[in-house]
Amino acid sequence: MIYDIQNETLPRDEMEKLQLRRLQALCERVYANVPFYRKKFDEKGVKPTDIKSLKDLSLLPFTNKQDLRDQYPFGLFAVPKDQIVRIHSSSGTTGKATVVGYTKRDITNWGELMARSFVASGASAADAVHNAYGYGLFTGGLGAHYGVEALGATVIPVSGGATRRQVMLLKDFEPDVICCTPSYALFLAETGEEMGIDIKKLPLRIGIFGAEPWTDEMRLQIEKRLGITAIDIYGLSEIMGPGVAIECWEAQDGLHIQEDHFLAETIDPESGETVAPGEEGELVFTTLTKEGIPLIRYRTRDLTTLNTIPCKCGRSTTRMKRVTGRSDDMLIIRGVNVFPSQIESILIETEGLTPHYQLLVGRQGNLDTLEVQVEVNEAMFSDEIKSLQRVESKVMKNIKEFLGVTAKVKLVEPKSIERSLGKAKRIIDNRDEA
Ligand code: DLL
């Protein structure tokens, strides 16, 4: 089923016409209402009327996270404050928070896009959704919540935390769909096992997981342990929140971008030049319909590849590959670039290891060092030291062979790495202290 058959299946030329119309109106709007953009346009010598085709997008200036921080809290809002009906904010790990505001129409659009996303995942109005994304300034909880209501399904607003109670609710309320981060899904499976509740045997059918990078290997684990179809959902608060793009259950082959609302490009992160579909680049979004805080060419730092081939599910929207890392999560270990997700793939494929891991980055002299700490499963834990050492060297060898970096590998006890209720913390960077 497709929720918004008209907009999700628009032929390419009609989609582009709609995008252009919206882009032109957007440029007029931000030029008139946001001094920051007026200045940026003027500096580039571009006027809203210069945008005559979608190709002219490249004339427009980029926006980045620092711009949002510099304009903290409300400097990029394009409407008077009395039209803002909701604020969200993302704390980030460094620097000031970024703040976003939504008008009534923004909230309605977001609900509709999340309703589209639920249907793309295989859910329907008849389903009940256990929503374990955090409620609050984070966009996950309320974003999914309003989507369930727009669809007319039942929302169970659990939020994050109290994990044993969550397992009880999964058993007692028998929801069809769960929303949470992929790392939390595994924590739920593990907690269920401890409580003697096998989530696989419950009616739960679909998981909608996002807010952090995960891999296909992790998907298989989650699908097996929870007995569900695991769907990847992508979004970021600056652009809207969850629901910017989602996989369809029919293909699970790339995430459909809601292109009538968000114009996507991929660029070379160094030069800023646009790269062609099929080539990896940094994802850049222009919000076509947002009123509260519209953004022009926002650099997400997320790396992906666009695919314009229509999908077998019937949607014609451009798809993006699973985001395997942010350019700022990339580690450079002795000159070699490594993403946590690449290490994750190697760990998950190794017998006896779990997907619970952390990467400790340090410095010795002038060189960066990497230590991979990964939990073993119970069976492996009760094995002899010799076989543990064998696994350690095997993982070290695979990391060296496939990724080209030397890492120390340390197997740790089951359940010794702290579980996260939201986004997992994969990297511990001790370089500043060294
Ligand atoms: O994480 C919004 C969200 C909530 C998305 C719930 C999906 C589900 P932020 O806190 O602003 O917003 O973080 C956005 O998280 O730029 C990516 O780096 C990362 N991210 C989000 N979804 C995915 C995903 C929410 N499916 C940042 N795969 C983004 C990989 C993701 N990374």
TrEMBL record:
Single annotated GO MF: phenylacetate-CoA ligase activity
Protein name: Phenylacetate-coenzyme A ligase
Domain AMP-dependent synthetase/ligase: 78-285
EC numbers on record: 6.2.1.30
Domain of life: Bacteria
Protein's job: Catalyzes the activation of phenylacetic acid (PA) to phenylacetyl-CoA (PA-CoA).
Pathway membership: Aromatic compound metabolism; phenylacetate degradation
PANTHER family with a match to the protein in the record: PHENYLACETATE-COENZYME A LIGASE
Native organism: Pseudodesulfovibrio piezophilus (strain DSM 21447 / JCM 15486 / C1TLV30)
Pfam family, one: AMP-binding_C_2
Domain AMP-dependent ligase C-terminal: 335-431
